[in-house]
Automatic annotation (TrEMBL):
Domain N-acetyltransferase stretches: 161-304
The protein's enzyme class: transferase
Protein name, as recorded: GNAT family N-acetyltransferase
InterPro entries: Acyl_CoA_acyltransferase (IPR016181), GNAT_dom (IPR000182)
Superkingdom of origin organism: Bacteria
Keywords, in A-Z order: Acyltransferase, Transferase
Documented EC number(s): 2.3.1.-
GO molecular function list: acyltransferase activity, transferring groups other than amino-acyl groups
Amino acid sequence: MPAPTVRPYRRDDRDQLTDLINAHVAAVVPGVSVSVNTVLSDLERQPREFITDPWVAERATLVAEQRRYVVAAAHLLRYRSGDEVAENYRDAGEIDWFVCRPPASFRPDSEEAADQLMAACLAQLARWNVRVRYADGAVPAPVVHGLPRNWPHIRVVYERAGFRHVGDTEVILLAQVAALPAPAPRPGTTIERTLGECGTRFTAHAGTRALGFIEVDTHLARPERHTRAGGLADIGNLHIDPSSHGEGLEHRLLAEAAAWLRLCGADRLLAYEQADDAAAIDLLLGAGFRELTRTDRRWEHRPR
């Protein structure tokens, strides 16, 4: 086999790059894939990142190619140094995502391609002369962010290059909407449906007092980007007044949300919790959720 070569992304790489990204997405969340249009748009701008994307000054996409086949790819960002940029992003560089074929006995050079691509990424960050170097796994698909535990081959590449996990670990949970609690009357309690910060909000009231609320988002993908995520929704917020803990209000709100999601044609619901919040995780597991994966947020280049 010829040695892999690393070069800037070209538009005619788009189909192979999309296939490589979708292979990684499929290992994290079932039934989700992205289109070529989604990938191309993400290389130019990331509208879902409405806070951080305006801070980006430069973008670069690199691929590792072997026999005219894209075996690894990475997307890099350089953030501006102005006062409008949050301090931890100011003059920072980031590997926004990095994907590569996992090593295999019949393809021993896949590890070489990944290491060559990582070396090129670090060289680009050095040319940008950034203050700090971050890494993530935020491919342009719903749910996929941080470094999912389902990608041990990427973790090895990051760690070998000197990146260290310095942030939190997030647990991603998934439930079949049909398995969530069925709505049940709760005397003295009413449910109001309104627009919330992160989707449609269902608020439980006792008289004029709000006891808690849940928000569900059924727009995990922008329609014009043609992401295959039909039937998928997520919990944007779930809050219960401390005085109402232990009264089963969480299950009532989940039941109301589930009834609405069935009307929307959504059949799966995602939730996200910090790994150290055992009570929140146990609540969701008891309501019909299952742990889908864990993902490690915030990686920083700290070579030993």
